[in-house]
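## retry 2 of 3
previous attempt timed out at serialization; input unchanged, resubmitting
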Amino acid sequence: QVQLVESGGGLVQAGGSLRLSCAASGRTLSSYAMGWFRQTPGKEREFVASISWNTGNTYYADSVKGRFTVSRDNAKNTVYLQMNSLKPEDTAVYYCNARHKALGNVYWGQGTQVTVSS
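## retry succeeded, writing output
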């Protein structure tokens, strides 16, 4: 089991920044890819960004490239999503995700609300 707890959401004006955190516990994360997803009412959860825990390779959705940065702190077992130049369309509940790269096990956090006002 992997437990994930997100924090850092809130209300921000368009053009502003927020940093989300995802604290992980319960397992060694070296075999996991850590991801950020988001969801708005009536829509499917969509991929935002991910990072491989052991290699540090990162991937981004086209909609956030150049604005969002995903990173990790091995000592704190925490993954971050730095969000800059926020747009109203970035408004969503953001979820942290851990996926075992070999076994496929997937774990989710409880989500944190991000609201960007125009």
